[in-house]
Design brief:
1207 residues, alpha+beta, twelve-stranded mixed beta sheet, nine-stranded antiparallel beta sheet, 38% helix
């Protein structure tokens, strides 16, 4: 067949994959079957581990359109292969969102069904495309998502719901009436059951998957070989260790599945009411919902089983599952563009853009409000794994693999050990053949050399340090669901922090207000509930412009709104359902001054009594609310004072935005200066505005008027100043991180100047450091995208009182505006989310330079936080992320070490969760990570040396057709190796973070030097001992007729000279060479353990590890004892030969020689370090004030830019 063009699924998305088609090939299947039988099943295992080999070995290439199997490969750096079987489904059409056929067809049950999408569509049959009566649809399932064949793109594609390419007007006019029964059944064939199915695998399935791990297969091979060689004891020990490891792993994996299953089971099956096309209401299970169904939201609330857009009414929703904040959010119905001629034109509906109108799966609808006679309706737009919650669960079920240099290097190192084993394997075969050894012995001994070189106990040994670290983390309140990430945390050199609730306290306190009169700021006032302000428009705005509601009698809502409302001491009253039923519209929420403002007060004055009398009749009704929008950065309400004819519009929001919507003559001339003063001090500032509406605006007109018509020509009223205090431990923790050369970055949704101020207060930005704000503007009116650079404030002079914090060891350069400011200065970049998005799209070459010194990223959306983490990882930073909610979920998952300070259910996605909501857990985690990483290096190097030492011993003994005895192997493997490995891993973490990090990989000069030097020393001493013993006067070489090394057997067994030897004699174990090498290697294992067991500066010193010290001393004493003072029973058990040799003395100098090869480790330079060096000699970097960086014209290469100085 001709070579097909390369096809993709999920093109240009995060999970983009290449796709290839294959058909089963019978002759290939026969060949593979024969190969599997001949290889004893090993080929089957190999094909199980390598999906691409499996498909290519059993199938032939075919066109995607007609293939039976698809082969998928991710396009990211991991290039992971998957395969899936293509299935066929009969259907009446190819597109679930289109009417399959406008005429009546007979279906399988014999009933006539009309497939109209809705009642409104039944009269529009002529506009529909006629499709075949019966069609075979091809599809496959990958990672819980179905991919259907799409003729238009000639590839497989995900079936989308109504969340893409559907206009807002169409949602109201075409989809709002619900689906007919026939159309519902047709769509369900495509979308399937509406559930996020996290199936907890059976113990048997998990066991098979775990046991088929390559390491366990190798262990099984080793155990079979040892049993064949009658080496039962160690085989049993390895089996016991493997069983414990497998059981522990199964328990952890199953526990995680159960946790995830319980998390998503809350909405799995509930009963819901849906509208059918003929206006009837049907009650169905939530699992039967499909996109296009119109469901009714019950007045007492529900857990949402899908993503749906609100068509009518209002809902109060708790979205803590998605946002991490247990703050009730008010959702209003999606406006119908066709009903508002003056409104902005029709737009495509998007759950992200229209989140104020979207009810997300898994969120809790607390209560609803509705018009009389109208039901609260919502249109289902996404179901199952396509929902927001489904995508979150998918990211947990199928995470991206963790790429860590240690693990890559470990596999390379093992590969090199396999090569060494190969040489030993060939040497053994050749040597045995030359000495005419029986074939069975050749096979066993040659295979045995492989199990010696690649130790089967390595996985268990490597896991020990991580398990101990996980246990220590649990004791300090940090829970881990991904133990392998602990090692990676030891390499973190940059940590991103959320601001609110992480660096600062959760709550905001009202610091004061500053009103404006006659376009001038008055003096700041501490209290807003004074007598003179009671009936002011300023207080009226504070009382009405919020999204607070009462839930079971308790005032709930955004913490900022709550603080603001509590500061004026007013009362909020909502209409009951009975009151609403008496009117044709929703009864307004009413706010009025509290009675506590006067008579109950003990020190009430006459004036206050008069105030109370006046206030009893003063009420304000909130007629309409335009909710807060993070895009618009404001909210607005229309209200009316009781008894007045004209209504008022009140608005609050970001000061810059509010000021731009006000009449310029009402905004004070020093507005920017006053605002900057507050933000620099770290205050959160909110501006208020007011406008008296025209008397012609009636109740009904207000309900349909557009937001833009209200939010203009406002009168600026002043500022509310809120204080967000730093957490007590924040500055000290950040100082510890800076001293350890760990960069800190702030990623927040708050105002930029406020974020910069907090960064200065907590020590993230030092007093003498420059802050350069990058303001990026997208292309507009034919102009290219550009970045305007300006400095946030003047350069502060260095003072002796500035905190002594050693900042990240990245080279800095001279930054100065004038000769007076000439000094060595560190600079930081700050930008908001909009600028970050523009830079990512139009200035890709600038991204590495900006993230190298970027410290403050403000107004960042959740997906932008993830993009920032990826950008930092692209320049070789090991990134940690610390956040307090699931809105940081993407970044927490993507970072090398994500730490959630919230124990809410969404934190299941974060590798680490801290029980205490404090960033003090970050340095603790890094310390434990460094200790675990160093432990892994120690254990790996020790196990590698153990293999090489034993390999040298056995190879030397094979040269004389001897070997170590079973109990010698057992003593070495159990009494020395396992005891040492499991005790040397017990060293706790060092008490403080130091400025350097442990190495990240095994393949580095210092580490290789350390290992190779020990190998050379061990080889030299064993070889020396092997040949030295032969030079002794008492040495007698072994021959078949000799009893030189079997004196004890000769005394006890008279038949020894008649060829009736014991098993030990047959294997020629008890000889002088064996005994010499056994004692030398035993000391070498212990000395190597001491040499490689590192303490400071990442772990506590070895002498504090009591069990390790005790084990080594006991083993040393025991080996010295049996060597210098032979005990017949022990000699017989270990099969050693007593002699006058003095090998022990030869080992005294080894520790000293080993120490000569100690190498100081130095972390190799990463991309960000190289980039920092390049920027030192770049005359155009950092950008100077009053300059603009402009993108080149689109015809040129994307990401290029040029500097243009703006005068």
């Amino acid at each position: 067949m001709e070579k097909e063009e390369k096809k993709y699924v999920n093109k240009a998305e995060e999970d983009e994959m290449e796709i290839y088609g294959y058909d089963l090939c019978r002759w290939k299947l026969v060949l593979v079957t024969v190969g599997v039988i001949c290889s004893g099943g090993f080929l089957l295992l190999l094909l199980y581990w390598m999906p691409q080999w499996r498909v290519k070995a059993t199938c032939r290439r075919a066109a995607l359109k007609d293939c039976q199997v698809v082969l998928l490969r991710t396009t990211d750096e991991f290039k992971i292969w998957f395969c899936a079987k293509v299935r066929i489904m009969p259907s009446l059409g190819a597109n679930p969102l289109q009417n399959p056929n406008p005429i009546v067809h007979k279906v399988s049950n014999g009933h006539a069904v009309h497939f109209s999408e809705s009642a409104a569509e039944e009269n529009k049959n002529d506009s529909r495309k006629h499709l075949p009566v019966s069609k075979l649809i091809r599809y496959f399932t990958h990672h819980s998502v179905k991919y259907f064949w799409n003729d238009s793109v000639q590839s497989f594609d995900v079936v989308r719901g109504l969340d893409e390419s559907t206009f807002c007007s169409a949602i109201h006019n075409e989809h709002s009436t619900g689906l007919t029964k026939g159309m519902h059944d047709y769509r369900k064939a495509f979308y399937g059951v509406n559930e996020i199915a996290v199936k907890v695998p059976s113990i048997f399935k998990l066991l098979v998957k775990e046991v088929l791990n390559p390491f366990y297969i190798f262990q099984l091979f080793s155990v079979i070989l040892w049993i064949t060689d009658e080496y039962h004891y160690y085989a049993l020990a390895i089996v016991i260790m493997s069983v414990i490891s497998i059981v522990s792993s199964l328990y952890t994996i199953r526990k995680q599945y159960v946790m995830l299953h319980d998390m998503v089971a809350a909405h799995s099956i509930v009963r819901v009411s849906v509208c059918r096309g003929n206006q009837e209401i049907e009650e169905i299970l939530s699992t039967d919902l499909v996109p296009g169904d119109t469901m009714l939201i019950p007045s007492n609330g529900t857990i949402m089983p899908c993503d749906a857009v609100l068509l009518s009414g209002t809902c109060i929703v708790n979205e803590s599952m998605l946002t991490g904040e247990s703050v009730p959010v008010t959702k209003i119905n999606l406006p119908n563009p066709s009903e508002y001629p003056k409104a902005v034109g029709d737009e495509i509906y998007s759950p992200e853009v229209h989140k104020r109108h979207t009810l997300f799966c898994g969120t809790n609808v607390i209560q609803t409000r509705f018009y009389t006679g109208e039901l609260v309706k919502a249109l289902v737009v996404r179901t199952g794994f396509s929902t927001a919650k489904g995508q979150l669960v998918r990211s947990i079920l199928y995470p991206k693999p963790t790429d860590f240099k240690l693990y890559r290097d470990a596999y390379l190192f093992l590969l090199s050990l396999v090569v060494v084993a190969g040489f030993g394997f060939l040497y053994t075969i050749v040597n045995s053949i030359l000495n005419e050894v029986p074939a069975r012995t050749i096979i066993i001994e040659s295979l045995d050399i492989i199990t010696i070189t690649v130790p089967p106990a390595l996985p268990a040994a490597m896991t020990a340090g991580i398990v101990y670290a996980q246990r220590r983390l649990k004791k300090i309140g940090i829970f881990c669901i991904s133990p392998q990430r602990i090692n990676i945390c030891g390499q973190l050199n940059l940590v991103c922090f959320d601001k609110t609730g992480t660096l600062t306290e959760d709550g905001l306190d009202l610091w004061g207000i500053q009103r404006v009169e006659n376009a001038r700021f008055l003096l700041p006032e501490e209290r807003a509930c004074s007598e003179s302000l009671l009936r002011s428009e300023f207080v009226a705005c504070m009382a009405t412009c919020h999204s607070l509601t009462k839930i079971e009698g308790v005032l709930s809502g955004d913490p900022l709104d709550l603080k603001m409302f509590e500061a004026i001491g007013w009362i909020l009253e909502e209409a009951t359902e009975e009151e609403t039923a008496l009117h044709n519209r929703i009864m307004p929420t009413v706010v009025r001054p509290s009675k506590q403002l006067s008579p109950e007060s003990k020190q009430a004055t006459d004036q206050e009594m008069e105030l109370f009398e006046l206030s009893t009749g003063y009420e304000i009704g909130i007629v309409r609310q335009f909710p807060f929008s993070s895009v618009l950065q404001r909210m607005c309400v229309i209200a009316r004072v009781l008894g007045e004819k004209r209504m008022d519009a009140y608005m609050k929001g970001a000061p810059e935005v509010i000021a731009s919507l006000c009449k310029q003559e009402t905004v004070p001339v020093d507005f920017e200066r006053v605002l900057e003063d507050y933000t620099k001090q770290g205050f959160r500032v909110i501006a208020l505005a007011h406008r008296k509406l025209e008397s012609k605006l009636t109740w009904h007109k207000v309900q349909t008027i557009s937001r833009d018509a209200i939010e203009s020509n406002m009168d600026f009223m002043g500022l509310i100043i809120m204080q967000n205090k730093l957490k007590q431990e924040t500055p000290a923790v950040l100082e510890d991180l800076h001293k350890a050369n760990i960069r800190t970055v702030m990623v927040t949704g708050d105002n930029m100047l406020t974020a910069i101020s907090v960064a200065r207060d907590c020590g993230m930005i030092l007093p003498q450091d420059k802050v350069i704000i990058a303001e990026a503007l997208p292309p507009k009116d034919g102009q290219a995208a550009r970045i305007n650079w300006h400095y946030a404030d003047t350069l502060a002079k260095c003072t002796s009182s500035s905190p002594a914090i050693n900042s990240e060891d990245i080279p800095v350069k001279l930054v100065h505006e004038s000769l007076e400011d000439l000094q060595m200065t560190k600079y930081h970049f700050a930008m908001n989310g909009k600028s970050f998005a523009v830079i990512l799209e139009h200035f890709q070459d600038l991204v590495p330079k900006l993230v190298l010194h970027g410290t403050v990223f403000a107004r960042m959306a959740p997906d932008q936080k993830t993009q920032l983490v990826e950008a930092l990882q692209n320049v070789d930073y090991y990134v940690g992320m610390c956040g307090d909610g699931a809105n940081d979920c993407g970044a927490l998952k993507r970072a090398h070490g994500g730490i959630s300070l919230s124990e809410l259910e969404a934190s299941v996605a974060s590798p680490f969760t801290s029980r205490t909501p404090s960033i003090s857990c970050v340095p603790k985690l890094i310390r434990e990570g460094r200790a675990a990483l160093v432990t892994s290096f120690c254990v790996f190097k020790f196990m590698a040396l153990y293999s090489i030492i034993q390999y040298i011993t056995v190879t030397l003994l094979y040269s004389i057709l001897s070997n170590l005895g079973d109990f010698q192997f057992l003593f070495i493997d159990l009494a020395i190796i396992l005891v040492v490995v499991f005790t040397m891993s017990l060293n706790p973490a060092w008490t403080e973070l130091v400025a350097r990090r442990p190495p990240s990989g095994l393949i580095s000069g210092p580490l290789l030097c350390s290992v190779l030097s020990q190998i050379i020393i061990c080889l030299a001493f064993q070889t020396l001992g092997f040949f030295w013993v032969k030079q002794q006067s008492w040495y007698e070489p072994w021959t078949p007729d000799s009893d030189a090394c079997n004196v004890l057997d000769a005394q006890n067994t008279s038949s020894a000279h008649h060829g009736n030897e014991t098993v030990h004699d047959e294997h020629y174990i008890k000889n002088y060479e064996n005994t010499t090498l056994f004692f030398i290697s035993s000391f070498q294992y212990l000395i190597v353990a001491i040499v490689f067991s590192k303490g400071k500066p990442f772990r506590q010193p070895c002498y504090k590890n009591f069990l390790f010290v005790l084990s080594v001393i006991v083993l040393y004493v025991f080996i010295f004892f049996i060597m210098l003072h032979p005990v017949e029973a022990i000699d017989e058990f270990l099969e050693v030969r007593a002699s006058t040799s003095r090998e022990a003395g030869d080992r005294c100098g080894v520790c000293f020689l080993s120490s000569l090869f100690g190498c100081r480790e130095k972390t190799p330079k990463a991309k960000y370090m190289h980039l920092a060096q390049e920027l030192l000699v770049d005359p155009e970097w950092p950008p100077k004030p009053r300059t603009t960086t402009e993108a080149k014209v689109p015809s040129q290469e994307n990401g290029s830019y040029q500097i243009i100085t703006v005068t």
